[in-house]
C-alpha cells in the first residue's frame, strides 16, 4: 500500500513470494504484505502443512494466497516452485528470501556438513530463488523487487557462529551484485536486503537475557518481527532504492555498549 492506496497494476494485484513464510518472521512479513494488498505465495518445506493453514487463513481475510513446497537445498525444486507460483498467479512482483537455518558453529566442533548446509539454504538458495524469479520479473514492464533477509551480526559477529555469519555475510555482497546484474536486464528490478537485529528471543530466554537484549539497543526496547516486515515493505515500495542493506536493529550495530552474548543473538 502506498500513501494509503492499495497498490495494483491495472486491475491486477501484485504477487509476493515469501520463502520460509509459514512461521516466525517470514509469516509476519507475509501477513504484513497481505495487509498491504499483495497476493501471497507462501513457501515452506517441512512446514508445508502449516503453510497451507496460513494460506487458508489469508483467504478467509479476502487475500488470494496459496502454499508451495520446495526443498531449498535443491535447485530443481526451487525452479519448480517458481514455475508453479508463476503459473498459479500469472506474475511475481516481489520475492522475499526469508527462509533460513541457524545453529551455533564453534570452530572446534565445526564440520564440513555444517558449513555446506548453512551456505546451501542461507546463501545458494537465495541466489537460485532470485535468479529464477528474476527470469519472470524481466518479462514484466513493472519489473519487481527482491528483498533478502540477512543479519545484523555480519557487521558485529558474535563468538561461536562463524559459519552461520559467513553464510549471511555473503548476502550483503550478493544483494549488491544482483542489483547491478538485474538492473542491466530490466531497470525496474530492484534488489535490497534487511539486516535484522534480534526480533525473536529464544523460547528459554529469561528476564536477564531479555533485559540484556533491550540494553544492547539505542532505542531501549525489544525488536519485533513487525519491525522487519515494515522495512521489507519500504524496500519493496521505494522505486529509487536498490542495492541497499538496511540494518533494522534498534541501533545495536553502532552502539558501543553492545551486548555480544550469542545467547541473545
UniProtKB/TrEMBL annotation:
EC assignment: 1.1.1.47
SUPFAM superfamilies documented for this protein: NAD(P)-binding Rossmann-fold domains
Signal peptide: none
Keywords of the record: Oxidoreductase
InterPro entries (UniProt xref): NAD(P)-bd_dom_sf, SDR_fam
The protein's enzyme class: oxidoreductase
GO MF assignments: glucose 1-dehydrogenase [NAD(P)+] activity
Keyword Calcium in record: no
Keyword Oxidoreductase attributed: yes
Family per record: Belongs to the short-chain dehydrogenases/reductases (SDR) family.
Record's protein name: Glucose 1-dehydrogenase 2
Species whose genome carries this gene: Bremerella volcania
